[in-house]
Amino acid sequence: MNTRRALLDALAADDGPVSGPALAESLGVSRAAVWNAVEGLREEGFAVESTPAGYVAPDDPGYSGAGIAFGLDAPYSVEYRDRIASTNERARELAGAGATDVAVVADQQTGSRGRLDREWVAPSGGVWLSTLTRPDVPTARAPLFTLAAAVATTDAAREAGVDAQIKWPNDVLVGGGASEEGDDDADATGRGGRKLAGILTEMEGEADRVGWLVVGVGVNANLDPETLPAGATSLSAERGEPVDRRRFAATLLERFAELTESPEALDRVLPAWRERASTLGRRVRVEAADGVIEGTAVDVVEPGALVVDTDAGRRRVHAGDCEHLRDAA
What we know:
- The protein contains 11 helices and 14 strands.
- The chain has helices at 2-12, 20-27, 31-43, 65-69, 87-96, 143-159, 184-189, 235-239, 245-260, 263-266, 269-276, and strands spanning 49-51, 54-56, 77-84, 102-109, 127-133, 164-167, 171-174, 194-205, 210-219, 283-288, 291-301, 305-310, 313-317, 321-324.
- It has a 7-stranded mixed sheet, with helices on both faces. A 5-stranded antiparallel sheet has the order 13-12-11-10-14, with no helix packed on it.
- The longest helix is centred in the middle third of the chain and has 17 residues, at 143-159.
- The radius of gyration is 22 Å and the shape is elongated.
- The relative contact order is 0.12.
- Mean pLDDT is 89; it is low at 178-189.
């Protein structure tokens, strides 16, 4: 796989065909290894063209491990599966084996789940991925990685032409803003919009330091909303045409890596989250462990707590189910 990725990078760096001997010399491998790499890429869906002058980079890499890794500006190796029970589960297995900086991507999940073990429909056509990292940060800052994933997913959706927003703590929605108060989907679900994506974070570590962190992201990409749970939507439904899943996944991974690459980068997560949030300024009802909190959401502070102004004073909520309410007439 390393030779295949290096070959793709070499082809992408050149405007025209590159001969087999030139590739072999630049990569430090035999001409037979170049030929084997080309054939392997073709089997994975890369249309590497052969011309009398040499090989030409494919115009449209497919949705595969090599396809997502092609040109990826993020420090992750990509493990791709056509079908898997859960990308988070596989990432945890890799963590147990000592791996790090891996993105597990699947075309279809058969045993996926959301927060609180809720059902998550993950058929072929979505973007289902999990990142495994070992960040050198205190355990208390781990929730920032969930917020960073929400920002990254929202940015990838917007780049794809879908005006997504974030609802605390980890849902990416479309619609349901102030101009859509009558949105039936928002009223029916209490989500404040049509759900496009969800995030599930798992970790292991000591009291003061993260050991490993797995952030799973599920995005309804090229799916028919009629096959999804009530109140859900997809990128293709909102755009009116399919999205390039390979480009979407790469954008998400690149943005996530940018936001989490260092403790200093993590300081930029909350400002970015606030700019993309649909929850702030809204009346909310949050079902927290210590009861129901109702009021106006005014801020999110480290490590991801929602600040709510209530009749009894200001409260910080670290976890819970958040429902957007209609503002009083």
